[in-house]
Automatic annotation (TrEMBL):
<protein>
    <submittedName>
        <fullName>NAD(P)/FAD-dependent oxidoreductase</fullName>
    </submittedName>
</protein>
<feature type="domain" description="FAD/NAD(P)-binding">
    <location>
        <begin position="8"/>
        <end position="343"/>
    </location>
</feature>
<dbReference type="InterPro" id="IPR045024">
    <property type="entry name" value="NDH-2"/>
</dbReference>
<keyword id="KW-0560">Oxidoreductase</keyword>
<dbReference type="GO" id="GO:0003954">
    <property type="term" value="F:NADH dehydrogenase activity"/>
</dbReference>
<keyword id="KW-0274">FAD</keyword>
<keyword id="KW-0285">Flavoprotein</keyword>
<keyword id="KW-0520">NAD</keyword>
<dbReference type="InterPro" id="IPR023753">
    <property type="entry name" value="FAD/NAD-binding_dom"/>
</dbReference>
<dbReference type="GO" id="GO:0008137">
    <property type="term" value="F:NADH dehydrogenase (ubiquinone) activity"/>
</dbReference>
<dbReference type="InterPro" id="IPR036188">
    <property type="entry name" value="FAD/NAD-bd_sf"/>
</dbReference>
<comment type="similarity">
    <text>Belongs to the NADH dehydrogenase family.</text>
</comment>
<dbReference type="Pfam" id="PF07992">
    <property type="entry name" value="Pyr_redox_2"/>
</dbReference>
Length: 439
């Protein structure tokens, strides 16, 4: 007698939503009658909101990342290393692109994977809006590889300036950095750069300090941090300017050159390092998604149940999903808290779908926005019944809540036993490991 096939659930993308869903499905259903498969183009997971700390060396990703292979072994799902190339909804298969080593040799050939239910969670990338020169001259912070590349270039420029000052104490050598985008990523990176500059003196660059770092933050809108109330955005701007950041709002970048940024007002911002952090769009899938309806930003448009419009067997969640709540004017913003909540809903609805029960609608609960200015300050707004709506928070309380978000992610990824242990270890590491990762 031929045994029945296992119910195969394929998750594409191991970001915050994908890895949380894989853990919950694996823990709930195991391997006996289900085959839970997570596909990702990286071998490890790092929480995306921390990439600005990886980029400056404030966070050692090697200690905080999660290896998919060990994680899947612990939680009862399978991990496949690869990049989504396209899907075939009629045959219910996902097509995976071939994998090559650094020398161009094929490691794993192109192949396809069967699914009964498919969850798309492949995330987003930075949107350069077709601005001339950005793709060639700017750095992005969409992955750990990009964050590591930024850190290496930053350290090289700091070393160059330090050597120039050692050779000529009167030298005016500087590290010039231009950041485009006054949202959370751009603001947090700008502040974290000064934390890194302060720490470099402990590690051999005795003549280098924050005075040698010129950081310009460019924002096309009227002010930075549009998601926060005016008062908090103004407080963040004052904090950045006190550090030394030149905050220029209402300045649109028209082009990037090897020497710096050209702006709409015919100005020019010279820069040794250029970072583009203005806007996001769904990651590009080479062969498309076989007729799934997409938004202008390339996101999969979903029903309230987070199923795609065209196919009830295909779900989408996280940054690659466009979900507009009933009565709302615009889709839910691409935030970590939205991804976390979507993973819970998809987990519940997959169980309901397999049991032929009615599905539930996704209800987004906006818990507010928080922005960390490194060790200097944290500002934000919280929303909830306990405070009667919106509450502005700053200082230690905001910092505590900001760190709690990452702790919640650790619990969602590692469970109620291993998660708290890792939180304790992270506190210990703050005292025993170097302030900066310099390699």
């Amino acid at each position: 007698m031929i045994p029945d096939k296992k119910i195969q659930i394929v998750i594409v993308g191991g970001g915050a939503a994908g890895i949380e869903l894989a853990r919950k499905l694996g823990a709930r259903y195991g391997r006996k009658r289900h085959d839970i498969i997570l596909i990702d183009r990286n071998r490890t997971h790092i929480w995306k909101p921390l990439l600005h700390e990886v980029a400056t060396g404030s966070l050692d990703a090697s200690l905080d990342e999660v290896g998919y292979r060990s994680h899947c072994h612990r939680w009862g799902y399978r991990y496949l290393y690869g990049t989504l190339q396209g899907i075939d909804r009629a045959a219910r298969r996902v097509h995976i692109a071939p994998v090559f080593d650094p020398k161009g040799r094929e490691v794993v050939g192109a192949h396809s994977v069967r699914y009964d239910y498919l969850v798309l969670a492949y995330g987003s990338v930075t949107n350069d809006f077709g601005t001339p020169g950005v793709a060639e001259n700017c750095l992005f912070l969409d992955s750990r590889v990009q964050a590591d590349g930024f850190r290496d270039q930053l350290l090289d420029h700091c070393l160059r300036v330090s050597r120039a000052m050692s050779a000529d104490p009167g030298s005016d050598a500087r590290v010039r950095i231009a950041i485009v985008g006054g949202g959370a990523t751009g603001v947090e990176l700008a502040a974290e750069l000064y934390n890194a500059a302060d720490a470099l003196g402990y590690y051999g660059l005795e003549v280098f300090d924050r005075q040698r770092m010129d950081v310009t933050l460019l924002e096309a809108g009227p002010r930075i941090l549009p998601a926060l109330p005016d008062r908090l955005a103004d407080a963040a701007r004052e904090e950045l300017e006190a550090l030394g950041v030149k905050v220029r709002a209402g300045v649109a970048v028209t082009a990037s050159t090897p020497l710096g940024m050209e702006t709409k007002d015919d100005g020019f911002v010279p820069a040794d390092l250029q970072v583009w952090a203005a806007g996001v769009k769904a990651a590009h899938i080479r062969d498309g998604l076989d007729g799934l309806e997409l938004s202008r930003a390339g996101q999969v448009i979903v029903r309230p149940t987070l199923q795609s419009l065209a196919d009830p067997h295909v779900f989408a969640m996280g940054d690659c999903a466009s979900c507009t709540p009933e009565g709302a004017d615009r889709p839910i913003p691409p935030r970590a808290q939205a991804a976390h909540q979507m993973a819970d809903t998809v987990f519940a609805n997959l169980g309901r779908l397999m049991a032929n029960r009615p599905l539930k609608n996704f209800e987004y609960k906006d818990h507010g926005s928080l922005v960390s200015l490194s060790r200097y300050s944290t500002v934000g707004s919280l929303m909830g019944k306990l405070v009667g709506g919106r509450m502005a928070v700053e200082g230690r309380l905001a910092r505590f809540v900001y760190m709690s978000l990452y702790r919640m992610h650790l619990l969602a990824v590692h469970g109620k036993i291993r998660g708290p242990a890792l939180i304790i270890v992270s506190h210990i590491n703050r005292f025993v490991r170097p302030r900066l990762k310099l390699h």
